[in-house]
Design the sequence.
């Protein structure tokens, strides 16, 4: 979802590397040093393994038993994921892509088309992958993606993510929308110049980031600000109400907050309350009688959130998908 004349500005090598580090898959501290890394790719033909490649160490010896489960293949080569494809599968993807591509397709439509073709070939058995972290997550359509984008960032506005460490702006990302796509992807360098003197307390200084973005780029439709370590913890925190609790105690600040995000956070907090009530009710025969009422209230909450919530628009929870991709 980028315009043909998109600008990439305001980055240094350090701040860009830091921004990518925010989305780096990670394991729990006790497994970080020993966890499998990289992936292994197997190309086979006629029941024989033709090529074997590890994304970190390079070519591997393809001699060995085949076929074998991909989980075993990954374990044998100390890899965190594995992919197998019939010889010529990549060429087939490009052939199908070229046959279906339209001149008017933008980057979003092209990316969704590639995903569609890849899923088709997985269903046909030409491509296999392990683990299937996004199993059960429906593929969003182009209309769904644009509708969700309208929910969080209208045309002519910008989204900003600012993460701090020890009172300093560690890195930041700004995306400005023009029409159906983004025409600016900016880093923190120009924003820092406009922030002026800061207090060293990120819960106050985030306002200076938002003001600088509005002066430099566009009105902010959605802003997310946090300490870098807390932000990374929340990415993989699957507990009900984790984001809602963090917002209440200001471990993370969402300002401004689109209606769809506000509804999602409210529903997340309500799920936490319902789960807590269920745990307490299980120990009390009196409270257990209220469970039907709470179940009805939970159902009504979901109906109230409805299509205005980003998750309802996409047909899946994007935070759950993010946790699946980042957790190891």
Sequence:
């Amino acid at each position: 979802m980028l315009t043909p004349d998109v600008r990439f500005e305001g980055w240094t090598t350090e701040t860009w590397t830091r921004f990518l580090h925010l989305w780096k898959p990670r394991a729990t501290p006790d497994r970080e040093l020993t966890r499998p890394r990289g992936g292994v790719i197997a190309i086979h033909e006629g029941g024989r393994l033709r090529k074997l490649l590890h994304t970190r160490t390079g070519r591997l010896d393809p001699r060995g038993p085949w076929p074998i489960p991909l989980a075993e293949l990954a374990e044998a080569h100390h890899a965190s994921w594995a992919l197998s494809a019939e010889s010529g599968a990549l060429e087939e993807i490009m052939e199908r892509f070229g046959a279906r591509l339209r001149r008017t397709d933008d980057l979003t439509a092209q990316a969704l088309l590639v995903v569609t073709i890849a899923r088709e070939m997985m269903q046909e058995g030409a491509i296999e992958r392990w683990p299937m972290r996004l199993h059960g997550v429906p593929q969003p359509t182009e209309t769904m993606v644009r509708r969700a984008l309208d929910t969080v960032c209208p045309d002519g506005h910008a989204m900003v993510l600012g993460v701090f460490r020890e009172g300093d702006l560690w890195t930041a990302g700004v995306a400005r929308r023009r029409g159906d796509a983004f025409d600016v992807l900016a880093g923190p360098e120009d924003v820092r110049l406009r922030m002026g003197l800061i207090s060293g307390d990120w819960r106050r200084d985030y306002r200076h980031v938002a003001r600088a973005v509005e002066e430099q780029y566009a009105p902010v439709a959605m802003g997310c600000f946090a300490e870098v370590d807390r932000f990374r913890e929340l990415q993989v925190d699957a507990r009900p109400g984790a984001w809602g609790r963090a917002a209440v105690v200001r471990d993370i600040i969402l300002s401004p907050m689109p209606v769809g995000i506000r509804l999602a956070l409210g529903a997340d907090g309500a799920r936490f309350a319902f789960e807590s009530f269920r745990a307490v009710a299980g120990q009390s025969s009196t409270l257990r009688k209220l469970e039907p009422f709470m179940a009805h209230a939970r159902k009504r909450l979901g109906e109230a959130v409805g299509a205005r919530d980003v998750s309802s628009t996409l047909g899946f929870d994007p935070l759950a998908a993010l946790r699946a991709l980042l957790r190891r």
